[in-house]
Design a protein that fits this description.
Elements lengths: L18 H14 L7 H5 L5 H12 L10 H14 L3 H6 L6 H18 L21 H34 L5 H8 L14 H20 L6 E3 L13 H10 L6 E4 L2 H13 L5 H9 L2
Antiparallel strand pairs: 1-2
Helix pairs in contact: 4-7, 7-8, 7-9, 7-11, 9-11
The structure holds a DNA duplex (21 and 21 nucleotides).
Length: 293
Amino acid sequence: MGRKACCENLGLKKGPWTPEEDKKLLDYVGKHGHRNWRLVPAKAGLERCGKSCRLRWINYLKPDIKRGNFSTEEDHTIIKLHALLGNKWSIIAAHLPQRTDNEIKNYWKTNIKKRLIGMGLDPITHKTIKQNTFECCGDGQDQSKDTINIRHVAQWERARLEAEARGSMLQVGSGSSNLSGLILSKIPTQPCLSSHSVSTEHKRVHNMYALVLTTNHDFRSSVSTLSIPKLPAVSNIPQITNTESLLTYKADNNVMEGCVSNLQDDDIMVAVEAFRTARSEGIEELFNEFTSM
DNA sequence: AAGGTGTGCAACCGCGCATTC
DNA sequence: AGAATGCGCGGTTGCACACCT
């Protein structure tokens, strides 16, 4: 079962690399490149497996690697992207070109994760460890804590949505057509917020509509996803049967014009929660549900 | 000073995906 | 079509060093 480990051959060296080995690898890759890592060690005169050489090159020897302490900006980028993507270190590393996925992964584990835990936040969900939901409850002090937590998570969701929209732009470029489905499918499963935080069905769908507009809006514009267009009166929203119709509707009704109001944190949370709780449904069904109310 | 414990990080491992044959 | 191969990824391990008692 499975494939043979490439280092299975006896006699191949493992463990820390010596400066001599580093030099051999650097010299070889510098001269010949690394089109086939399996062939690299033999040609470079190394008693290592290709995989080990690749790893050493990527994580340590590559000339454009930045080493040393992470800047505050890098730190924030990692936190935001982790909130968005989870443990997708290679994708996170792609946003920090001079850092390796391994380095970011280690930095996360040894530094950021502990800080989040210290702040009382779950490093996976970025929500409070205590409840991991937004269920509100209590006296004034708890409420103010909840407010802070809501703001905190809203920031992550905000980052998530922006990155989501940007990511979706790439998907559009590569030929994806089911945009709404993409958005829905990529919003990760996380603990649900309390149902009573959704005040009405109207608000739910209204905010979902806002989110669809804003995320789709970002497919065509670099304007912040957090600016939402003026929403048409509830009763004016037609039956929308597919994404193309939605986009056409938006264009025809000029709803992209005049992004007037920023989403409030709780709006974001309501909308995100609405997406999460309804992500198995198609966006079209949700609109149908809404317009038939 | 010495042993124990914690921390950071380089390197390894196993798996999945894409490509090749 | 499917087996073989190579690459890349995320998780884990183990070593070296720092700190504590």
